[in-house]
Every structure is written in structure tokens, then in C-alpha cells.
Write a structure and sequence with these properties.
- This protein is mainly α and 180 residues long.
- It folds into 2 domains: 1-82; 87-180, no CATH class.
- It is built from 9 helices and no strands.
- Helix 1 runs antiparallel to helix 3, helix 5 (88-115) crosses helix 7 (135-148) and helix 5 runs parallel beside helix 8.
């Protein structure tokens, strides 16, 4: 049981507990123990059972990390709920700019398929996941520029371009004040 979180009602604390429990169960199911893995292997070898997808260690790690991000996000939303209620418009604008950046990343993948003579939507999961690993680095500059001014159409346009040119944005990222 998770101790009560300051400022949360017992119902919200109960919801956080349920999220953490569900996340732990998902991770246990994903990684399992040796006995459950042996049981799973025996189940997979059952004659007549259709072949299911097998997860590589990298896929398991990615799903585990994504699960932790979702759990953390849910806890953060619960913790900052009063602030979110006061500044909902800011959150909507920030989410929209992030989604526009992700759209730019997706369009870049489709564009590279076109340049390479492949089908436009012949996209592998790694082509979509790889740019998302750099999303915080690409998002930060546009967020700083957008939040310092009022949100205009330029913010959305710049977010799309940052997403489309994410490789250039990442390779040119420098620490503030560095002269390189």
C-alpha cells in the first residue's frame, strides 16, 4: 500500500495505488519468473496453438520503459491536478505543439521512404520509435520559444519543422554558452 500523498484525496491515492499495482503486474507478466517462463514455453509448444508474436529483449525493455512513463505521467497528473485545472489552456497548447512536432517526425519518415523509392506507408516500428527517443531534445527549444511569447501559428509551424528536421536539431544541440 502506498502511503497517502500530500494533497490527494483518499480516492486519488487509491487510483495511484491501482496504477502502480497494474504497472507492476504488467512488468511481471512481461518479464516473468523462470517458472512462469517455463510454463509459457510449454503453452507455446502446445500442438495446434497458433503462433503468437514473440517479444525480443529490446521490445520488452521498450514496453517496460513506456509503462513506467505512463505510470509516472498518471501520478504527475494526479499530483499537479490543481495546477492543471488552473492552467488547462497552457497544457492544451503544449500538447498540441508536441503532437505537431511528432507529426513532423512522421512526415520526415514518409518523405525518406519517398526519396528511397519505397512505398510511402511502408514504415517499420523502429523508424517511428527512433525519432521519438530524441523528442525531448527537439521539443525543448520550441517549447522555450513558444512559452516565452503568446502561442501563435508560428509556434505550430516551428514545431512541425523541428520534428521534420529532428536529426539536424539534435546534431546542432549545444549547451547554453558553449562556443563550439
Amino acid at each position: 500500500m502506498i502511503p497517502p500523498i500530500a494533497g490527494l484525496t483518499p480516492e486519488l491515492t487509491e487510483a495511484v495505488t491501482a496504477l502502480v499495482t497494474a504497472g507492476g503486474a504488467a512488468l511481471k507478466l512481461l518479464f516473468g519468473t523462470k517458472t512462469s517462463q517455463a510454463r509459457e514455453r510449454a503453452f507455446e509448444e502446445t500442438p495446434g496453438r497458433p503462433e503468437g508474436p514473440k517479444w525480443s529483449p529490446a521490445q520488452r525493455l521498450l514496453v517496460s520503459f513506456a509503462s513506467l512513463v505512463v505510470i509516472y505521467g498518471a501520478i504527475a497528473v494526479l499530483h499537479f491536478w490543481p495546477w492543471i485545472q488552473l492552467h488547462g489552456d497552457l497544457l492544451v497548447a503544449a500538447s498540441g505543439i508536441f503532437l505537431m512536432m511528432v507529426l513532423g517526425m512522421f512526415v520526415q519518415v514518409v518523405s525518406s521512404n519517398f526519396k528511397n523509392g519505397r512505398e510511402l506507408l511502408d514504415i517499420s516500428m523502429s523508424q517511428l520509435v527512433y525519432p521519438m527517443l530524441f523528442a525531448p531534445i527537439v521539443y525543448y527549444p520550441i517549447w522555450i520559444v513558444s512559452s516565452s511569447n503568446s502561442f501563435h501559428a508560428f509556434s505550430w509551424y516551428a514545431a512541425f519543422l523541428n520534428g521534420f528536421f529532428w536529426e539536424s536539431v539534435v546534431s546542432s544541440a549545444r549547451l547554453p554558452g558553449s562556443a563550439e
